[in-house]
Amino acid sequence: MSVQLSFPSNALFVGHKNPDTDCTCSAIAAANLWGGTPIVQGELNPETEFVLKQFNVEKPAFEDNFAGKDVVVVDHNQTTQSAASVVEANILSIIDHHAVQDNFFFQKGPIHIDMRTVASCCTIIADYYADMNVEISAQMAGVMLGGILSDTLGLTVPHTTDIDREVAAKLAKIAGVEDVEAFAQEMLIAKSDLSKYTAAEILNLDYKDFIFGDIKIGFGVCESLLIDKVIAKHDEISAAMQENKKNGYEAIFFAYVDLTTNNSVVIGADDADFTVLEKAFGISKGDLGVSLEGKISRKNDFIPPVSAYFNN
Amino acid sequence: MSVQLSFPSNALFVGHKNPDTDCTCSAIAAANLWGGTPIVQGELNPETEFVLKQFNVEKPAFEDNFAGKDVVVVDHNQTTQSAASVVEANILSIIDHHAVQDNFFFQKGPIHIDMRTVASCCTIIADYYADMNVEISAQMAGVMLGGILSDTLGLTVPHTTDIDREVAAKLAKIAGVEDVEAFAQEMLIAKSDLSKYTAAEILNLDYKDFIFGDIKIGFGVCESLLIDKVIAKHDEISAAMQENKKNGYEAIFFAYVDLTTNNSVVIGADDADFTVLEKAFGISKGDLGVSLEGKISRKNDFIPPVSAYFNN
Fold this sequence. Notes:
Order of helices and strands of chain A: EHEHEEEEHHHHHEEHHEEHEH
Largest interface: A-B, 38 and 38 residues
Strand order of the largest sheet of chain A: 3-2-1-4-5-6
CATH architecture of the largest domain in chain A: Alpha-Beta Complex
Structural class of chain A: alpha/beta
Oligomer: homodimer
Radius of gyration of chain A: 19 Å
CATH topology of the largest domain in chain A: inorganic pyrophosphatase (n-terminal core)
Shape of chain A: globular
């Protein structure tokens, strides 16, 4: 690809709110490649902390004031998934792998936008190292591998592409990770340790806002090897969702994702939300919520039917 | 770039309404690369006809009913620049080099979007041939060269990048165009022959709608080596603009671009439009309109200040 991207040295590389491993590692690896500062907009989750510790990489600085700053957006493309001040930023570029819905980062002039249908934003960043013939250090290979394994649940989710797999294999070699499956399992174990979180914190750990026209919805996801321990807090999580709904939300959804079976149960905050889910997925509610077999991806499995429902 | 793009064989490759050489040639070259059908949404201008004739390439079919069809969007990214039915299309990918404003082609799920800050969409398409190791025929090299020379006015506009230049040189060699400058001049002469057009047709020849929030504006451009012949029709063009304004437009603008000096004069349909231009560009109106020295690009020079004005 004959792109010759460069950014000013004061550029901030910014992942989405409620940072996950892919957005955090994308920001770190991109800032390392182009120069500039990686930024997170919140507390790291235990999986991301595990990955950074593993490869001895520093946590990015926290920042949520982007007014007037040069910003490269990674792993998201909607202003609603960043601090409000991001609309006052000077957006230099967007590198992402999500669908474009409302509230895209609009610009006054043309900028470089690269959205690919791979499973991890780190796959795209790693490809820029290759295109630009920049050697990848063991540390950077480790964090990008972490991002890919996180978003693909160890290369197992159905939307994992051959490109994600090839890039992960290459990065694992450079990072000195001999047993990728075992490393991915360690990441899942770290991610599944939610003992220190309250129900409200679990709801917000991987939570995103989506805007469809005038409608705002919230969609949280919890992926765990020990999902039953999370489901044990169902009443408190429901209460936290109902509390959230007061903040101008049309609906709040939350998915219990069982990483041992790759099945999910999606719940709503109240009866109205459950009706939306039943109509969007064409599935009746069970005891807990709408059961989706083999579906675990918010981006590919959960949001498209919900988006179609609200946009029709 | 490790993208492995493929599209179904019934895919339509669609440029914007009021087709120009870059969008038409992008659609042709992309359809040739990936398989599928190139589409135009209107009559070709004399420059595009010249280029296709030169390389003995067939005109794309006309189509403006995209409902339910598989569509790859080239050289634009806003639904307002396609037929209304495009919102009912299945958008497979967007390959473009314009700013993202309102009315982007939103999707239900992730798709491949490639927006680069090069001066021509054909530059991007040519890069895919290279990435995919597909040999470029003399015909396809010719049409892509035509697209690049058209959008860069023979590689002379300031936003022409080194990448556009490199790709154009490579394509010229394959196409057997020995004197690129002379060929670009022939294109400009073909483009400047507007003798068969009425004032209303000249206004619409390279005309685009832009939506800023609830505001719709129209912006036509006429680039010519013989701009005085166009300016001679100023009263009729003004009348056509005022007529257009009745169709729900907040403002209508039109740029007389003098290709012999690379200067422009931007006019409005009425006093209110001229006031917008004066405020957007910070320049007082002259006899004809707002004079912009060395500025000739709608995408890079004209729209950003107008967009900033309406978005503030």
